[in-house]
Amino acid sequence: MTVIYLASDIDFVPYSDPMRYNRNIESVVRIKPHPNAKFHDHNFNSPTYENFLRDNIGSYAQ
Fold this sequence. Notes:
With 62 residues, the protein is α+β, with helices and mostly antiparallel strands. The protein is 32% helix and 13% strand. The protein has helices spanning 18-23, 47-60, and strands at residues 5-8, 28-31. A two-stranded parallel ribbon has the order 1-2.
């Protein structure tokens, strides 16, 4: 199983630990923020992640 980390382009939390971010950079998928996303855009239930999850969750749920 492959691990991926989803991060909005306006989510600054991944940068709070730059060593970990850089160590796992190959697993990070940056996503353009949704127009209705909050300033922080870190919550998993953010509209930013809806399309990605809907389009890709099936391949990870098997």
